[in-house]
């Protein structure tokens, strides 16, 4: 059997939906998989180390990245709650990159989001080279994450792949996801490709399956070697039969980010705006 590609990989967000899905697949790529979350990820499995730490805990993050060779960063906040976003996605991400620098980590695979560009019109084909157009504060924190990745590559040669994940679920739910869906198997392929690619540099790629009506052109990220093998198409007939056609003013019909374009108004406290 060949040697694993890495000595130690760190998976953050290991208690979350995608972290739990990725965890068993990462073990085969490393001698030791360190899994971490602020919520206990459960007992260590064979070849694993388990840590409970918050991204906003600077010292804790410094210790978490000790002797780590690559990071798969899936910890973070998806809720439109500024205090949580600030702690986890802004401060926490800076702690992650700084701890990576101090500990000599060479590669970070980062869960970004399609909501970094969610204000582009639905149907327009865009590429990772197009300017960011976040659709909410959450999306804006992902742009920050990508900016940090760029900075730490230019300044310290730490490689990053920023995955602008579409909708990662066991199956597409609703019409928008016919465009944005990524299967769990394809997301696993994507993370694996980014870990095994000879050179990542600073790369941004959309995390999407091979969907007929995808809006994202990943040809500029071909060097990462990601070839999606699933598609939302087999689910189309059932989704179209069970959900009404989208009204022309439905955010899912207008914007790539769908309803996320309204989430700031739904959650904003006007008491903070006087
Ligand atoms: N699920 C999707 O379709 C999707 C789409 C786009 C992007 N993403 C991104 O992928 C990542 C994982 O998504 P998920 O669906 O597994 O989310 P999730 O909410 O299920 O998991 C996130 C994990 O991060 C942990 N976390 C949150 N704040 C933390 C903090 N301050 N310190 C330490 N840990 C913290 C949580 O405890 C949780 O276990 C997120 O960054 C998310 O933005 C997911």
Under the CATH scheme, the architecture is 3-Layer(aba) Sandwich
Strand content: 15-25%
Hetero groups in this structure are: nicotinamide-adenine-dinucleotide
Q: Which class of secondary structure composition applies to the elements?
A: alpha/beta
Give the count of helical stretches: 9
How confident overall, as mean pLDDT? 96
Q: How many individual domains? A: 1
The total count of strands amounts to 9
Termini separation comes to 64 Å
What report would you give on this structure?
- By secondary structure, this protein is an alpha/beta fold.
- The protein has one domain: 3-Layer(aba) Sandwich (Rossmann fold), CATH 3.40.50.
- It has 9 helices and 9 strands.
- The strands form 2 sheets. A 7-stranded parallel beta sheet has the order 3-2-1-4-5-6-9, with helices on both faces.
- Strand 5, helix 4 and strand 6 form a beta-alpha-beta unit.
- Helix 1 crosses helix 6.
- The longest helix is centred in the middle third of the chain and has 22 residues.
- The protein starts with 5 loop residues before the first strand and ends in a 7-residue tail after the last helix.
- The model has no long low-confidence stretch (mean pLDDT 96).
- The site of nicotinamide-adenine-dinucleotide has 25 residues, from helix 1, helix 3, strand 5 and strand 7.
Secondary structure layout:
Elements: E1 6-12, H1 17-26, E2 30-37, E3 48-52, H2 58-64, E4 70-73, H3 82-103, E5 107-113, H4 137-156, E6 159-165, E7 167-168, H5 177-180, E8 181-182, H6 184-196, E9 202-207, H7 233-242, H8 251-254, H9 263-267
Parallel strand pairs: 1-2, 1-4, 2-3, 4-5, 5-6, 6-9, 7-8
This protein binds nicotinamide-adenine-dinucleotide.
């Amino acid at each position: 059997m060949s040697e694993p590609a890495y000595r130690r990989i760190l998976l953050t967000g290991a208690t979350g939906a995608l972290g739990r899905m990725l965890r068993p697949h990462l073990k085969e790529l490393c001698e030791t998989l360190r899994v971490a979350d602020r919520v206990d990820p459960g007992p260590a499995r064979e070849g694993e180390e388990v840590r409970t730490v918050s991204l906003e805990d600077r010292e804790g993050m410094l210790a978490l990245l000790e002797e780590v060779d690559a990071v798969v960063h899936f910890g973070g906040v998806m809720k439109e709650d500024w205090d949580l976003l600030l702690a986890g996605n802004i401060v926490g991400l800076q702690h992650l990159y700084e701890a990576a620098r101090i500990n000599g980590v060479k590669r970070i695979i980062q869960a970004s989001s399609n909501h970094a560009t969610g204000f582009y019109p639905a149907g327009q084909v865009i590429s990772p080279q197009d300017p960011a157009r976040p659709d909410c504060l959450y999306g804006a924190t992902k742009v920050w994450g990508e900016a940090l990745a760029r900075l730490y590559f230019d300044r310290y040669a730490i490689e990053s792949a920023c995955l602008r994940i579409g909708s990662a679920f066991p199956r597409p739910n609703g019409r928008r996801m016919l465009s944005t869906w990524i299967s769990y198997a394809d997301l696993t392929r994507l993370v694996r490709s980014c870990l095994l690619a000879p050179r990542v540099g600073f790369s941004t790629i959309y995390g999407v399956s091979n969907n007929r009506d995808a809006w994202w052109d990943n040809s500029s990220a071909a060097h990462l070697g990601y070839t999606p093998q699933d598609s939302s198409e087999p689910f189309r007939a059932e989704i179209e039969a069970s959900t009404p056609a989208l009204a022309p003013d439905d955010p899912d019909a207008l914007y790539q980010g769908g309803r996320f374009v309204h989430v700031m108004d739904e959650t904003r406290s006007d008491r903070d705006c006087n």
